[in-house]
Amino acid sequence: MAHKKGQSSSKNGRESQSKRLGLKKFGGEVVKAGNIIVRQRGTVHNPDKNVGMGKDHTLYALCDGTVKFTRKREDKSYVSVIPFEN
Fold first, then answer.
1. What is the spatial distance between Cα 10 and Cα 84, in angstroms, rounded to a whole number?
2. What are the tens digits of pLDDT across the range 22-62?
3. How confident is the model at residue 71 (pLDDT cuts 50, 70, 90)?
4. Among 46, 64, 73, 80, which has the minimal tally of Cβ within 10 Å of its Cβ?
5. Class of residue 38 by CB neighbours under 10 A (exposed 0-12, middle 13-18, buried 19+)
6. What is the phi/psi pair of residue 81, to 5°?
């Protein structure tokens, strides 16, 4: 039996955890205030009406409503939440 790890197996183990980025809610989906809509690195999607942005560029809903994705100036993607009408 070997008392030291083999050369190849000691070079493994540097894989980082996946960060689970991407869309968490899609267009037309119902969200509650505080729900995360998008986790991203940088502003791939920009916040619009009723959407806040965290320091890590996470977009979240500021009110209850329906998610809507639009493209505006310079072909940038914007995310808004359309509140329910009472």
1. 57
2. 999 999 999 999 999 999 999 999 999 999 999 999 999 99
3. very high
4. 73
5. buried
6. -120, 120
Rounded CA-CA distance 20/84 in Å is 29
36 alpha carbon, distance to own chain's centre: 7
Angstrom CA distances, 78 to 25, 35, 69, 72, 86, stand at 14, 17, 6, 7, 25
- DSSP string across the chain: --SS--TTGGG---PPPP---EESS-TT-EE-TT-EEEE-SS-SEEE-TTEEE-TT--EEESSSEEEEEEE-GGG-EEEEEEEPP-
